[in-house]
Amino acid sequence: MKLPRAALRQCSRQLRPHQTNWPLQPRLQSAKSTSSIPASSTPCRPSSRTYATTPTVVSAADLEFGQPVYETHPHMLQPGELTPGITAQEYHERRSKLAFALPENGIAILASSELKYRSGAVFFPFRQDSNFLYLTGFSEPDSLAIIQKTGPKPGDYVFHLFCRPKDPRAEQWSGPWSGLQAAEDVFNADFTGDIARVESLLPPILRGASKIYTDITSSTPVTGQLVTTLLSHLHLPPSPLAGLVHSLRAIKSPAEISNMRHAGRISGRALTSAMRRSWSSEKDLESYLNYAFTANGLSGPAYVPVVAGGSRGNMIHYVHNNRLLDQNQMVLVDAGGEYGTYITDITRTWPVNGKFSAAQRDLYQAVLTVQRQMVSLCRENASLSLDQIHRATEAGLREQLTLLGFDLSGGGGGKMDVLFPHHVGHYVGLDVHDTPGYSRGLTLRQGHAVTIEPGVYVPADDERFPEHFRGLAVRIEDSVVVDVDSPLILTTEAVKEVVDIEALRG
Ligand SMILES: [Mn+2]
C-alpha cells in the first residue's frame, strides 16, 4: 500500500502565513452564509449595528489552539516552528529517524501525559511526556501518537495522532485545545481521529504490524488498558520504546542547542544578578530567581530550586527554601530556567555577605579548580564518558582536599563518599535528568549535553575533617554541550571565579 509521506506536507503551514485565510471545520459548521469576506477585515458600522459574522474561511490567527502556534503567537514562534526554536521539519525528521530504526512494518505507540492533580480539583500546569513531545511537538493530554514504518528509506513512515475533537462547550471551561483539523494541518499528522474512538480506530492500524514498540502499560492513564488488551489479542507482545527515542534525544540538534543556550544565558544572568544583591531569606532569593527567569523570556523555572543557606547545602535536594540566611555563611543555589521545554541546570555557591572567608574561599577554589578541569574534558577528542569524568573528578577532589589538610588516607574511600556523594553529572535536555537509562558509560560525542557539577559537602559534626571546613557545602554546576575539540558552556553568564563574585558587590 502506498501511503502519503508526512514529508510532503510538513511545510504546509508556510503556505498559510499570518493573515492567510484557511478553512477550519468548527467555523464551517456554524457558517450560515457564503460570504467570502473574513470577519477580521469586515468593518463594524455602529450606525446600523449590523455585523458580518459568517465567513466561510477564517484566519488561523482568529482561532484558539491548545498551545502557541505561529499564527496566534508570532511573538513566541517563528514561521515554520511548532514549538519555540523547533520547526515542523525537525519534528518530521525525528519521526523519520525513529521509523528508520524500526524493523520492517514496525510500529511505535506513544501515550501523552495526563493532567496531574495537586489536591482535589487543583491541578498542576500540564507537561507533555518528553518522548511524545520530542516526536510530535503536540502538547495536549488525552492523545495517542503512532509512528508506522512503511518502507526501508528515511521518510517512509505514517504518523497518526489521536486527540480530542474541538468541543466549544468543554473548552469554555478548560481553555482551548487544538482539535483534529489542527492535528493534520498544524502538527502534520497523516491521519487523525477522536481519542474516544481509539478502540475501533487502532486495530486496523496494528493488524499489519510485525513488531510493536511502546512504553504503555495497563496502568497508563486513558489508553493503557485498551492498548495492552488489544496488543495481547493481536498476539503482539510489545518491546520497550524509550531506549530507541532516548538514543535520538541524547544527541542534540543545532536548534536544540540554541534553545538550551538561550535558557542557559538568561538563567546564568539571573544567577549573577542574584549574587549581586544582598539576601536575608532563602524564600526571597528563590522568588527572585523564578521571577527573573520568567521576566526575561523563559517559560519559568525548570525544576524546584535548591536555595540552601549554610550547612543545609549538605542536603543535596534541600528544597524547603524557607530559612533565614546567615550573613557569615554561604548559600548554595541550584536553579535553572526552561525555554521551549529545554532546560538548563546551574548551581552556584557564594558568600551571603558577598565576601568569602578564608576557609570558604579555600574550599570553593578547590571545587572550582576541579570543575574547570572536568568541563574542559567535555569534548569528543578527549574520548571520555561521564563515568570516566566522574572518576577523574574524584581523583581531582581528593588531591585538592589533601592540599587543604584533609586526611583522606586509610579509609579514604569512605571519606570521599561522604564528601562527594553524587555523580559528577548527568545528561540534560528536555528533562533535567535527560534520557534516563541512557548509559553514562558511553564515550561523549558531539551533541551530547551534560552537567558538570562536582561538590564537596563537609558534615557539621564529623571530626574526621578539619574543623574550619565543617558545615561548609560547595557545589558548582554548568550545563555543557560536547563539541569536537572544545566544550560549549551553556551557562557561562553565571559568574564563578572568586574575584568575579566578590567584585559584584564591589
Ligand atoms: Mn544537575
UniProtKB/TrEMBL annotation:
Cofactor(s) demanded: Mn(2+)
Q: Does the keyword Transcription apply?
A: no
Q: Name one GO biological process term.
A: protein processing
Biased composition (Polar residues) is annotated at 11-23
Q: What is its EC number?
A: 3.4.11.9
Family membership, please give it. Belongs to the peptidase M24B family.
Please identify the protein, giving its name as recorded. Xaa-Pro aminopeptidase
| Provenance organism | Sordaria macrospora (strain ATCC MYA-333 / DSM 997 / K(L3346) / K-hell)
